[in-house]
Write a structure and sequence with these properties.
The chain is about 70% helix and about 0% strand. By secondary structure, the chain is mainly alpha-helical.
Length: about 500
């Protein structure tokens, strides 16, 4: 029989709630965030640090209310930028699309520097080997390319295994502390107002919000989800709830491991070794060795999760006509956006090699300088989305209540604006860089957005057909309620969550 000439598409109904949750929680890299960043949060915020993660989780849960409500009405694979387009117009939507590409690429590519340093640190700690960071990072690029090239269900299974490993070692640490009663008995003092309402809490909140980065990417997998009307909201809430509660619980148990009076001193003396010292004491040296290995696999899982998200954003933008059409091709066997994946890998290789040739430090410069603007860009996208939700629902007929369409998104917008202010005001803690460098890194975010607005004007003038169909609803319904775009007579606005700076793990 002759082969079909119909272009391949992403594999529909391939992902369930658990699969999508694995992708987004893996992007957050829980073990890396805990072992590498939580000690700094304890150092800055004292024993009240666990409450910071709970507060960040509550804020993002409020954001998820309007976000997931929007997902039931807007079925475009463009996720963030599609929602923003519906509420704030095509110009802002195209600016948001460019911001999403830069944000997700920044979050992913910078982490190759972390992969190089954690591999080197693990080799030195376990076997006394001096592994250069660059070969490890380049090997990671090839590994992540292959993971993205394979089918989405292959990636989901792989991330499921890696996520169980990294969360399992943290559960093992927490279990050891709880069974032995900590250093001086267990205490809930971390959640007392006197421990939480301290000057360092602002810095803790900045780190805590950064620790959730990636949870919002659930909607990117809509075209591959089984019953997306249910799986997308469930996965979003599961991811936020798990990360918020898990982070707070693990940080609290580490405080119990050392004692409220001693933990800040321990974090000051050896922040990168805090978790390793705790698991060595309460579980055994073998568990510390395992933690070293699982930190590397945690970074790999995060890279693969972000790589898959970027590829799907690029695929949709290519289908829209904004990016080259070749990036919209799907592999006929694996049903993956393989050319988008190859392009993203090539971009990563160029940036990694560029930093290496410049003699830059893989951690303090490649990771922190590339990651930080990416993190701020994604937080800005969440803010724009929260603003878009009430505007959209004010202009279309719907049956949603005011909590979902007005109260929650407006509250989330205010809280996210505060979160962005905290991150920007504490950016030196994330980058460990000079004022000039920090100013440049922060300025990149509005500069990219403004470039997106200029691109929108160019498309409107020179390629009006692309501009007109930007972020349109897919032609084939998926059984969801389809809300039409507002009429042409309406004004244009209705047309139609870093890795923060942290010490390296102990060597």
């Amino acid at each position: 029989m002759p082969e079909s000439t119909t272009p391949a598409e992403l594999r529909p109904a391939a992902l369930g709630t658990a699969d999508i949750t694995f992708f987004v929680v893996s992007a957050a890299a829980p073990l890396t965030v805990m072992a590498g960043v939580a000690p700094v949060a304890i150092l800055l915020g004292g024993i009240g640090a666990p409450a910071g993660y709970l507060l960040a989780g509550l804020t993002l849960a409020v954001f998820a209310v309007g976000f997931t409500t929007m997902s039931r009405h807007v079925r475009s694979g463009g996720a963030f930028y599609a929602y923003i387009t519906r509420g704030l117009g095509k110009r802002v939507g195209i600016g948001a699309a460019l911001l999403a590409l830069i944000g997700y690429n920044g979050m992913e590519i910078g982490v190759y520097g972390l992969l190089g340093t954690t591999t080197a640190d693990t080799g030195r700690a376990l076997w006394g080997l001096d592994i250069p960071w660059l070969p490890a990072s380049l090997a990671g690029l090839l590994l992540i390319w292959y993971g993205g090239f394979r089918s989405i269900d292959f990636g989901a299974k792989l991330l499921g295994v890696l996520l169980v490993a990294e969360t399992g070692i943290l559960v093992l640490l927490a279990g050891g502390v709880l069974l032995k009663g900590g250093a001086h008995g267990l205490s809930a003092a971390s959640f007392a107002p006197g421990a939480v309402l301290v000057p360092g809490t602002a810095a803790v909140l900045a780190f805590a919000f950064a620790a959730f980065t990636g949870f919002e990417s659930t909607v990117i997998y809509r075209r591959e989800a089984r019953d997306p009307q249910r799986t997308i909201p469930r996965a979003t809430y599961l991811a936020v709830a798990f990360l918020g509660l898990f982070y707070a619980f693990v940080v609290w148990t580490v405080i119990q491991a050392f004692g409220a009076e001693e933990v800040v001193t321990a974090a000051t003396e050896d922040p990168g070794g805090l978790f390793f010292a705790a698991i060595t004491t309460y579980v055994g040296p073998w568990a510390a060795d395992l933690m070293h290995v699982f930190i590397v696999t945690s970074v790999i899982a995060s890279l693969l999760a972000f790589h898959n998200a970027i590829n799907r954003y690029a695929l949709v933008l290519a289908e829209e006509g904004v990016l080259p059409a070749a990036l919209g091709r799907v592999h006929p066997r694996h049903r993956s956006p393989y050319l988008a994946g190859a392009a993203q890998t090539a971009l990563g290789a160029v940036i990694v090699l560029g930093f290496a040739l410049a003699g830059a430090d893989p951690y303090q410069q490649l990771l922190l300088w590339v990651n930080t603007p990416g993190m701020i860009a994604l937080m800005a996208l969440m803010l724009l989305t929260a603003l878009a939700v009430p505007v959209y629902f004010r202009r279309v007929a719907h049956r949603e209540g005011p909590w979902r369409t007005v109260v929650a998104p407006v509250t989330a917008a205010v809280l996210l604006a505060v979160a962005i202010f905290l991150v920007v005001s504490k950016v030196a803690l994330f980058t460990m860089a000079s004022t000039a460098v920090n100013t440049l890194l922060i300025a990149l975010v509005p500069a990219v957005f403004l470039a997106g607005l200029a691109l929108a004007q160019r498309l409107k003038t020179r390629r009006p057909e692309v501009y007109a169909r930007f972020a349109e609803e897919p032609a084939h319904p998926e059984g969801a309620e389809q809300c039409p775009l507002p009429t042409p007579s309406s004004p244009e606005p209705a047309s139609a969550p870093s890795t923060p700076a942290a010490p390296r793990p102990a060597r």
